Amino acid sequence: MTLLDRCALAVASAGLALSTLASPLQVRPLTLKPGVDAGQLEAADAGWAEGSVKLPFVEPASPVAARINEALYLALGMVAPQKPGASFTPPAEQLPHGTASQDFNVARNDDRLLVIVLSAEGCGAYCENYDTVYNFDARSGWLIALQDLVQPAAMEGLARRIAKESARRYAEQIKTLRQELAAARKRKAKADETQDLEQRIELNQGCLGGEGGLRNAADLVRYAGLSLATPGLALTIGRCSNHAMRALDDVGDIAVTVPLAELPPLLTAYGRAVLLNEGEAGPPSQPFGQLLQGKVGQAAITLRLERPYADGSVSGQYYYDRFRKPIPLSGKREGDTLTLTETVNDQQASFKLKLRGTTLSGQWQGRERSLPVSLAW
What we know:
The chain is of the alpha+beta class. It has 3 domains: 3-147, Heat Shock Protein 90; 151-266, no CATH class; 292-376, Avidin-like (Lipocalin, Beta Barrel). 27% of the residues lie in helices and 32% in strands. Helix 1 (3-14) runs antiparallel to helix 3 and helix 5 packs antiparallel against helix 6. The two termini are 14 Å apart. 30% of the residues are buried.
């Protein structure tokens, strides 16, 4: 029996509606230990031999806690430990590359929502800090995305709201920088000071966007970060600058909040159940970010997909429950069809899946055989 089956059975046998489950979940820290020496870490480019990496682990053991743990750890590129102590040592190939250090905090934990914020220091050309927020439905364990909460018809208005705030922030910054540049030139500042201001203005003008000063609104809302730690929708737009140009970006991340009072006409039925406690929360309409479980042939598998990019490209990973070793996936979404490719030991195989309701079904095609696939969340 899969975790999904156990979850459904547990809820059904208890005879409880999701809305009546009120005990908050418990989240404890796990210290991630590499299990290899610093030389091996350096060779693997893991980048955190000198740092401390802490991960959240949800308890007590239950189908909901298991769903949250599995989805969260797969999002981080590893398989969740099943019975960890105070520390956790994943296989070397699952180490979080490029993470110098990491900690977390629980921003909300009640009968409806569990919000976990991972705060990490990532290192590329240089190190920088960033936060990633994971919003979970505490009654089911489903991961919540903005697209699950807001009706499609309301997304355009929300996108323009975000784009206008972005434009306002960049326009203000350009005005300030131009005043500083004029003052620097008047007092005949050194060339490197005026050049720095000119480069900042150029960056901010590029970030301001095209006609009307609006960056691509659809892209902004598609990639906005979501936090449900407080009432309403708190959205964060990642900074416009790339990693190399970050030092010239004076605006950085942009926060937009939609107050709770404005939400009712915007929400899906699922959004109303989760945020307003109106009705029962059925499953989200899309599989992306969710923990999917099912079978390839007769073998039980667990699969998780990231949300598709604007061009339809999608990535993810899955594992066979018997072995619990993640296999990377990459591919494309076209309408309700997903085509995904895996490579194991230089051998390629592919999934071709059709989305129907809350299921994905289709075929897994290997080098010499084809097997049926069925998945659900």
